[in-house]
Amino acid sequence: MQIIILHSNDTHGQLMPLPTENGALLGGYARRATFIRQQRTAHPHLLLVDAGDFYQGTRFWHAFRGEPDIRLMNMLRYDVGALGNHDCDGGIGVLADRLRQADFPILCANMMFPPGHPLADAWQPSVIKTIGGVRVAFFSMLIDAMQLYPTEFQTAVRVEDAIATARRMVSLLRAQADVVIHLSHLGQLGDVAVAEAVSGIDLIIGGHTHLPLEKPLVINGTPIVRAIAGGQLMGRVTLDVSPGESARLADYRLVPLDDSFADDPAIAAEIGRWRAKLPPERVLGQIAVPIDTRSQVKGAGESTAGNFFTDAMRAYFGDAVELAFVHMGTLRGDRIYPAGDFTNHDLSEYHPFDNHPMLMEISAPQLKTILERGASALPYTVGTFLSQAGLKVVIDPSRPPMQIDPHHPRILSPGERIVRAEFHGEPVDFTDESRIFRIVTDGYMGRGGAGYFVLKNARNIRKADVSGSTVLKWYLENFSPVNPAIDGRIVILNGE
Questions:
Q1: Three-class SS of residue 32?
Q2: What predicted TM-score, i.e. pTM, was given to this entire model?
Q3: Average pLDDT over residues 248-276
Q4: 130 has pLDDT over 80
Q5: pLDDT band at 79, cuts 50/70/90?
Q6: Cα 149 from chain centre
Q7: SS3 at position 151
Q8: Nearest 10 degrees: Cα torsion 30, 36, 41, 43
Q9: What would the mean pLDDT of 390-408 be, rounded to a whole number?
Q10: Cβ contact 206:226 at 8 Å
Q11: CA dist., res. 201 & res. 353, Å (int)
């Protein structure tokens, strides 16, 4: 028989459609509901799942802390969800409220809290759903980079190794189910590592990585699939299941939620009720060019998204800094903000985190290290990609990349991708320990996150007394229309 699995991931609070490059709209829960209803009507043996990061990232998150998102997922009758790292951003109390609100099980097998903690029994490691007589087991694991979590989460949670956990879960579930699926929030690198090391998983449905997989990525016989951040696409998997045999991936496609799907009236009305309760919209200033925060753009090279943030920080901190840096995981929305008015609601989505920038002093060799880290994943587009203001940097992705130990803060290979960097038109001597640069970074990177742990060894480290959002508001108010156009500060040689 055939089982259909519809999957979403990393919606990040995008309740409504998002604009595309040509001005069309994609996604939104009202269209998602119509697509799901059509699929359920056509296919009685269907499961609906989500791979985590349900709500953090939009104006709705800042106003309602995830309540409308879980309400909508309940209305769409999700069968299973995976816990995502950003689902924890509101702290223990908010997470506990959202987990209680969900009518569907939310899974996590590799993180747990001690007895007596408010989250001690708030989620389960796995669940088995029986559909058409077939027992389908889901388990989930969550990325264990603890700097991604609030302090109160970090200090109490117990983390198990993902590979060991996967082996334990597969051994347990294989004895109880016909199909075993890992509904993952590890990101693509984590999913690949699990598939390489653990046999017996029929399918991995990924999250945390924001880019879609247009075709299944098959590792060690296990297919990995993933939709897109923001909800513009829904994944649709068809599994062939026969008695005594492993499930087989018969079909996989990503379905654009375009205007061929009419808005579901009940869902549209529900979203309308929440929209009516949002704080008033205020124009903060103007942008002269569109700001593109789509993952495939901001992580691939110089971007208007990165220039906007770094230019604002360099202007705000003035002579206190020479260089400004931001890693792309800080800049969100997965959309194009059109030229023109930029509002408080736009800002809450472009920069949804309440992080304060970090100021410090680094040597020329340390500068080389962070530039290599920023270029290490190319051509793959990820949140670690580094944007900057104050330098011209030339990158050759055909050269060996920096490699770091994902489990310990150490560099395994320093990387050779930074061909050169120029400061005020003069080449930087990366071997000169005496050359010190005054820099400002986004808060997460500045604390050593996203693999930029070399910054923990910087000098004169201090946290700014304002948030990144405050810096951006000031910049818009004082310099509009701001123009973060591509100006050649990052040059990628594309292997030439």
A1: helix
A2: 0.91
A3: 97
A4: yes
A5: very high
A6: 13
A7: helix
A8: 170
A9: 92
A10: yes
A11: 35
Q: Tell me which residue of 211, 205, 184, 295 sits closest to 252, measured CA to CA.
A: 205
C-alpha span between 335 and 292 (Å, rounded)? 6
Q: Where are the alpha helices (DSSP H) in 76-221?
A: 92-101, 151-154, 162-174, 188-197
| pLDDT, tens only, 212-248 | 999 999 999 999 999 999 999 999 999 999 877 889 9
pLDDT of amino acid 306: 98
Rg (CA), the chain: 23
Q: What is the Cα–Cα distance from 365 to 182, expressed in whole angstroms?
A: 41
Lowest model confidence (mean pLDDT) among 108-112, 118-122, 461-465: 118-122
Residues facing 6 on adjacent strands: 48, 236
Closest to 221 measured CA to CA, from 243, 192, 188: 192
Assigned token pair, 356: 């304060």
Task: Please give the DSSP secondary-structure letter assigned to residue 120.
Answer: T
CA distances from 67 to 26, 32, 271, 435 (A): 23, 18, 12, 50
Cα separation of the two ends of the chain: 50
Cβ pair 453, 447 in contact under 8 A: no
Task: Name the phi and psi angles at 349, rounded to 5.
Answer: -95, -35
Contacts of 273 by beta carbon, 8 Å cutoff, 6+ apart: none
Dist. CA 157–CA 143, nearest whole Å: 13
Q: What is the DSSP string of 290-324?
A: -EE--HHHHTTS--HHHHHHHHHHHHHHGGG-SEE
- List of domains in the chain: 2-276 (3.60.21.10), 283-492 (3.90.780.10)
What is d(CA 236, CA 14) in angstroms, rounded to the nearest whole number?
A: 20
Report the pLDDT value the prediction gives residue 494, as an integer from 0 to 100. Answer: 77
**302, 455, 458, 484: which is closest to 373 by C-alpha?**
455
Q: What is the pLDDT of residue 371?
A: 98
For residue 230, CA distances in Å to 53, 159, 293, 359, 400 come to: 10, 28, 11, 32, 33
pLDDT over 80 at 495, yes or no: no
Strand pairing of 106-107 and 80-82?
A: parallel
Range with lowest mean pLDDT among 5-9, 11-15, 353-357: 353-357
3-state secondary structure of 170: helix
Helices (H) and strands (E) in the chain, counts: 14, 31
Give the separation between CA 441 and CA 359, rounded to whole angstroms. 7
Closest to 162 (Cα-Cα) out of 224, 217, 111, 225: 111
Residues 6 or more apart whose CB falls under 8 angstroms from that of 425 comprise none
Question: Residue 143 is which amino acid?
Answer: I
In whole angstroms, what is the distance from residue 262 CA to residue 32 CA?
9
